[in-house]
Amino acid sequence: MMEKTEQGLGRLCVIGDPVEHSKSPLIQNAMIAKLGIPYHYTKRLVHQGDTQEWLDTARREGFAGFNATMPHKVALVPLMDELGEDARLYGAVNTVCIRGKRCIGHNTDGMGFYQALTDLGVEVPGRRITLLGAGGAAKAVALKLVQQGAGPITVCNRTPQKAEALCNLAKGRMGHIGFALEDLRRGARDCDILINCTSLGMTGTNSQFRDLSFLDELPGHAAVFDLIYSPAETELLRQARLRGLKAANGLGMLIYQAVFALEYFAGVRINAKEMEQHVIEACGLGGEA
Ligand code: NAP
C-alpha cells in the first residue's frame, strides 16, 4: 500500500550522489502544485552500491516512485520487476514507479530530449547529426535519434573507446571521429543538427571548448542544441547565434523529462506547454534559452 506523508500526500523523491544540486524537487513540486495532485517530492542521498538497499527502503516506506540520477541509473536495471521500452533500449533507468511491491523502471531522458528538439521545429528523420560527447546523456540522445529515423550520426568524443562503444549500439547508423579541432570541423561540415552532450561550458566545471571556430563549417540551416541549461546560454550557443544559427539549451529537455516522469508516477496526462512557464518562474530557471 502507498504510504502517505503526514499531510496525506504520496511520496516521491530523487536519489543520487551527489543529489544536493538536483533541481528535480523544485520542478516536480512546482508541477504538483500547479496540477493540484496529492504528492510531495523530496531528495535522498543514496551512495553508489546502496541501490538495492534503497529499493527495499522505498518499498518499506511506501514511496509511490522516485527518479534516479548518477550513479544509480544503470544499477537499477537488473533490480526492476518490469522495464519500459526506452529503459531497456538505453540500459538505464531514471524513473521508477512502485506499484504495490513491484518496481517498474522507465527512462524519460530520450523522450524529453526529443520533444524539446521537435519543439524547436527541427525535423529528425533523415537529418545528418553530429553529437559531441559519448557519455550517459549522449547515449540516450543517440539511441532516441536512431529510433526516430535520423540520418547518419557522427560522434566526436575525447575518449575514442567510449565513442566506439556507443557507436556499436547502432552499427551502420553511427560513426566516430576524435575531438581535435580538425575533427570538430569535419563533424560540423554538412551537418544538419549539432548537439553538445559534453559538460564543456557547464557552470561549475571550469572547462570550455578551446576553439569554437568549427561552427563556421555548419551550413546556414543547421540547428545547434546544447544539453546544458546552466548557464542558460553557453559560449557554444552564443557563438552559434552570432552566426545566425537556430540554437537552444537543455532547459526544455530538463522540463520534459520531468513532465514525463510525473505522468508515470501519477498516471495523469500533463500539458507540458502549460507547465513550462510556470516551472521556469517557480524554479528561477529563466534566462535566454
Ligand atoms: P558524462 O556521462 O559524464 O559524459 C560527459 C561527456 O563530456 C563525455 O563524453 C566526456 O568525454 C565529455 N567531456 C567532459 N570533459 C571534457 C573535456 N574537458 N573535453 C572534452 N570532452 C569532455 O555526463 P552526462 O550525464 O552524459 O552529461 C553530459 C552533459 O549533459 C552535462 O553537462 C549534463 O548537465 C547535461 N545533461 C543535461 C540534461 C538535461 O535534461 N538538459 C540531461 C542529462 C545531461 P570523455 O568520454 O572523453 O570523458
Structural class: alpha/beta
The Cα radius of gyration reads 19 Å
Helix content: 25-40%
- The name of the CATH superfamily of the largest domain reads NAD(P)-binding Rossmann-like Domain
Poorly predicted spans: none
Termini gap: 42 Å
The arrangement of helices and strands along the chain is: EHEHEEHEEHEHEHEHEEHEHH
Task: List bound small molecules.
Answer: NADP nicotinamide-adenine-dinucleotide phosphate
Q: How many beta-strand runs?
A: 12
Biggest pleated-sheet summary: 6 strands, mixed
What is CATH's topology name of the largest domain? Rossmann fold
Could you give the topology of this structure?
Elements: E1 10-16, H1 24-35, E2 39-45, H2 51-60, E3 65-68, E4 82-83, H3 85-90, E5 95-99, E6 102-106, H4 109-119, E7 129-132, H5 136-147, E8 153-156, H6 160-167, E9 174-177, H7 181-188, E10 193-196, E11 223-226, H8 235-242, E12 246-248, H9 251-266, H10 272-283
Parallel strand pairs: 1-2, 1-3, 4-6, 7-8, 7-10, 8-9, 10-11, 11-12
Antiparallel strand pairs: 3-5, 5-6
The protein binds NADP nicotinamide-adenine-dinucleotide phosphate.
NADP nicotinamide-adenine-dinucleotide phosphate binds next to helix 5 and helix 9.
Question: Any overview of this molecule?
Answer:
The chain has 289 residues and is an alpha/beta fold. It has two domains: 10-107 and 252-288, Rossmann fold; 111-249, Rossmann fold (3-Layer(aba) Sandwich). The protein has ten helices and twelve strands. The strands form two sheets. The chain has a six-stranded mixed β-sheet. Helix 1 packs across helix 9 (251-266), helix 4 (109-119) packs across helix 9 (251-266) and helix 9 crosses helix 10. The longest helix has 16 residues, at 251-266. The mean pLDDT is 94. The chain binds NADP nicotinamide-adenine-dinucleotide phosphate. The site of NADP nicotinamide-adenine-dinucleotide phosphate has 25 residues, from helix 5 and helix 9.
